[in-house]
Structures are given as C-alpha cells and as structure tokens.
Amino acid sequence: MPEIGEVARIVHYLRKHLVNRTIKSCQGFEDNIVYGKVGCSADEFSKAVEGRTVTGAGQQGKYFYVTFDRAPHSVMHLGMTGWIKFSVEETGYYKQAKESTVVEEWPPKYMKWLIKCDAEKVDGQDREPVEVAFIDARRLARIRLVDCDADKIRDNSPLKENGPDPVIDKHILTVDWLAALLRRKKVPVKALLLDQANISGVGNWVADEILYQARIHPEQYSNTFGDEEIKRLHDALTSVCTTACETLADSKQFPEHWLMKYRWDKGKKDSNVLPNGDKIVHLTVGGRTSAIVPNVQKKTAAVAGDVDGDEQDDRKAKPVKGRKRKSKADQEDEDEEEEVLPAKKDRSKKVKAEKAEVNGDSAAASKKTARGKKVKTETAEDADAGADVKTEPEETKPAKGKKTKATPEKEVKPATPGSRRSSRNKSG
C-alpha cells in the first residue's frame, strides 16, 4: 500500500499540476465509506472545492492535504489501493517514471472525485488543461473536509492525533524524543513503529527496512534498548524515510544494499536471500508479516515471542495487542498477504475428504451434513485422532444432520427397526 514515499510522490504531482490553479469543476462520486466514514459526502466535497484556487499541497506521514484560497480544506488518505491520477502525465511509482507508448484509459475506473482545470497562464507560464482523479478500488481511502485556517491544518483532526513525520518533523523526532517514546511503552518495536499515533508514515516494508539497517529484531520489546541501539534506530528511521521521499518511491533509485530490493520472494528458498548469501525469513509481528535477516538482526533482550521464521504458523504468532493496534491506525497497513488462508483451504479439503469416506453410503447426505457445524467439528477432531474413524462410522452420528436439514420428519417415521435413528430412540 502507499506509504510515506508514495504519498510524497502524490504531493509532488499535486504541486506540479494543481497548485496555483482554479478548479473549474469538481464531480464527486458518492461513497458512504470513503466519504461517509469521516463525516463527509461527495456532494459536500464538490460544492466546497468547485471554483476554489488551490494554494498548497502537503503531507504528514500517510495523510496528504490540499489547501484552497478559503476554508474548508481537504485532508485525504489513500488507504490500500488509492491513488491520484492526472490526465497529462502517468504518475504511478511502479512505472519507474519510464516513458510509455500505452495510452491509459481516461477517465479512470473507481473514481471518487474528478477535478477539471482550464488552460491558464500562471507566473508567466502557460499551463495546459488538466483533469485530476482520486481513485480507489477497495474503498479503504478517506476523503474529508477540514474547516480551519490553511496554516493550522495540522493542528486539527485527523492530523493532530498522529505522531510526527520523520522527514518534515526532524526537529521534533530527535534521538531523545525517540528514546522517551520507546522506554515508556512495552510493545514489540515493529508494532510501535507501525502505530501512526506514535510516528507518522511508517508502513510495513519501511519498518522492516529501518529495523534491518538498525540491526534490530522486530519482536524485541521497545523498552529494552540501550542508547547505542536507539541511536541506530533513529538514524535508520530518518535515513530510510528521507530516501523514500526524495526518490518519490522509485525503487530503482533505492540503494542496492536495501532489504526492500530482495524481500518479496517469500517462500522461494533459492531466491529469498541477499546478494551476500544471508537468508531472509518471514515471521509475524503485531499481526503483520515481517521480513528479517537473522544473521544481522539479533535478539539482545526480551522479545514478544520466539518464532522460527517461515516454518512457524502465523496464526500462533499474532499478539492480541497487535490486532487492536492495527484497527486503531485507520486500517491503512494491510500490504502483506497472510499465510493463514491457504492453510485453511487445505484443511477444509482434508476434512471433506475424510467426511466422504466416513459416510460413503450416501454422497448426497454427506454433502449436506458437512455444512452442519457439529458434524464438521466432530469430523475435524476425528481427523486428528487417526484412522480409527474410517472403521467405525456410526460414532460420528451423522443422522442428526438428516433430521434437522436433509430429510423431512414425515419421511423418517416409517424407518425400519434397527436403523441408526431407531437405535438412538430406543437407547434414549
């Protein structure tokens, strides 16, 4: 998902194509999540923006804002898949700023608003007409209006509830400030970095890069670090975030020694290594998949839990605090796929196969009873017990499913003596 560097890229293009221009028209597309979750509406946004002159654009971590010649102004968040597109230039960071002959579809899909500006002369320069679109396929973005003076926008919600930005707030985010933050909390250090209430803009891959360069294990508790380790963490935090912003998230410009260049081959043992041969492993910290290099990132004090990397079941490694913290941070940090889903699917197939063997006398009844919670639970437990289940199918008691879901009551009454239903009635 877009992190601090990608948001810096958006702000760069907003300043290039929109600042100091008058908005001729703004068409908002109603979305009760993207707008409604933050107390706004597409109609309110359109009326507030249309006819206004854009005076500035800026960011604080993962949030960015556009200010106008008068209030209200707009503060936005890209969520997981949000982006700002321009009709005159391709801005996607994944394109590596490379010239392309492919003409992109316009207007784009999944628009939340579409702004149009006429050709005009600004500061003695001719500026061509431009259309700007906010898109978001997954609807996790947020668009809101903030009624305040333009220079006070960071003193109002939602920006005031977020921590300092590692790039624009270097005068605040000092070594001493970071040391005090770490020592007054007891959470895994990666979870602390991902919490936007602590520090703005750090997402999953950025946090992994910071911790790798600082030679710190992501699970180590935040209150266990010495002065030297805190200084390394501060230097890496500032350096990684600054480089990501200055390069506008163009990964081709990232240093070759960065972990980010090699971390994406999860599960590929031959390729999931650094150029020097050090292995990259993945584990779950604070509910998020983390890439680490064990040869570099050693545990030097208490940690949230010892995990064996790729061989550990991610479900067992998720701490409760991490899940609460994730929801507190506006759902913005979901850029890694969990390993749990494939495991669940495989287990489901296994249970269904065993169920078919247990009730092989009636394929139709087996399909229906497999949906019953009680039968499914008993089958899963039997699967753990071993092969005894296949030799004694009566113990799984699938007839309850017949009574409640598969076979009407009146069809069961003429059942002959000795059937499974009759046996249970007699014993009861």
UniProtKB/TrEMBL annotation:
Residues 318-327 have a biased composition (Basic residues). Signal peptide: none annotated. Residues 331-340 have a biased composition (Acidic residues). One of its GO terms (cellular component) is nucleus. Keywords: DNA damage, DNA repair, DNA-binding, Glycosidase, Hydrolase, Lyase, Multifunctional enzyme. SUPFAM superfamilies: N-terminal domain of MutM-like DNA repair proteins, S13-like H2TH domain. GO terms for biological process: base-excision repair. GO terms for molecular function: damaged DNA binding; DNA-(apurinic or apyrimidinic site) endonuclease activity; lyase activity; oxidized purine nucleobase lesion DNA N-glycosylase activity; zinc ion binding. Residues 341-358, 387-398 have a biased composition (Basic and acidic residues). It catalyses: Hydrolysis of DNA containing ring-opened 7-methylguanine residues, releasing 2,6-diamino-4-hydroxy-5-(N-methyl)formamidopyrimidine. It holds the Pfam family H2TH. Residues 2-141 form the Formamidopyrimidine-DNA glycosylase catalytic domain. The keyword Chaperone does not apply. InterPro entries: FPG_cat, FPG_N, H2TH_FPG, Ribosomal_uS13-like_H2TH. Residues 302-428 are annotated as: Disordered. Belongs to the FPG family. This is Formamidopyrimidine-DNA glycosylase catalytic domain-containing protein.
